[in-house]
Design brief:
270 residues, alpha/beta, 5-stranded parallel beta sheet, two-stranded antiparallel ribbon, 9 strands, 45% helix, 15% strand, binds adenosine-5'-triphosphate, AAA+ ATPase domain-containing protein
């Protein structure tokens, strides 16, 4: 962690290789986000405005947070994380103060990435819980808009927001100069599931009877988070069987696979 005037900032250790699948999406993020942060002067010279905000949407557990961290790592940017739901639940005024403070700190330690999880809680369409005439959501939204509009060009600050409910996002945030790029992060297909299983078994001792291709085919609708859980659980099952075990076998993966049901349903996938 680097320290700037009393602020401790972490650059996440997640790299692009830790994310299985999503090849095109990674490329889009690299071009839209890495370049302006890495080469701000080139953008300035060409008179191109860098993207200030990216909205990632898609079902839970499919790597939106992990992607944001990989972007921060690739650009060596300080990473700030905010939860829309948390801001929303704070006392009147506290959420706005935290929001403003986060942008202030991000400016001090730029290049910075501000990751905004559950963005719909704050950036949702107008209306909702109210304090006086203006609702809590509206005050937070207007603070966010002010902060985003105030971001000076080419200063290396990017806001990455994530939501499971893109339709709930207020249209004001999708205007040019705000969230210019909207990307869908889909649940993994068979090939991506194989890559995710590969990522999460990399450091495990797995026996030669484990067939990750077959396991990928057999885990339709599983999210990255669920596949990660499956691998960990298989290791635990192996240890439970024999605390001196040296590797995880196919039967352990199968036992866990049989006990799990994916949370996503076909109908939920756009
Ligand atoms: P939420 O909407 O619930 O915040 P999310 O989309 O942000 O979910 P993450 O928090 O990034 O999802 O992912 C949860 C976990 O699942 C991570 O710890 C990550 O290791 C794993 N995971 C998800 N997708 C992938 C992937 N494509 N490759 C490797 N690991 C993945």
């Amino acid at each position: 962690p680097s320290i700037t005037r009393g602020i401790t900032v972490e650059i996440p250790k997640v790299s692009w290789d830790d994310i299985g699948g999503l090849k095109d999406l990674k490329k889009k993020l690299q071009q839209a986000v890495e370049w302006p942060i890495k080469y701000p002067v080139a953008f300035l010279r060409m008179g191109i405005a860098p993207i200030r905000g990216v909205l990632l949407h898609g079902p839970p557990g499919c790597s939106k947070t992990t992607l944001a961290k990989a972007v921060a790592n690739a650009t060596q940017a300080s990473f700030f994380s905010l939860s829309g739901a948390e801001l929303y639940s704070m006392y009147v005024g506290e959420g706005e103060a935290l929001l403003r403070n986060t942008f202030r700190r991000a400016r001090l330690t730029a290049p910075s990435i501000i990751f905004f999880d559950e963005a719909d809680a704050v950036a949702g369409k107008r209306g909702g819980k109210s304090s006086g005439n203006i609702s809590v959501g509206e005050r937070l939204l207007s603070t966010l808009l002010t902060e985003m509009d105030g971001l000076e060009q080419a200063k290396g600050i990017l806001v990455l927001a994530a939501t499971n409910r893109p339709r709930a996002i207020d249209a004001a945030l999708l205007r040019p100069g705000r969230f210019d790029l909207v990307l869908y992060v889909p649940p993994p297909d068979t090939e991506s599931r194989y890559e995710i299983l590969h990522v999460h078994t990399r450091k495990m001792k797995i026996a030669s009877d484990v067939d990750l291709i077959k396991l990928a085919e057999d885990t339709e609708l599983f999210t990255g988070a669920e596949l990660e859980g499956l691998c960990r659980e298989a290791g635990i099952v192996a240890l439970r069987e024999d605390i001196h075990a040296t590797s995880v076998h196919d039967r352990h993966f199968q036992a866990v696979r049989r006990s799990l049901k994916p949370a996503l349903t076909k109908a939920e996938i756009d």
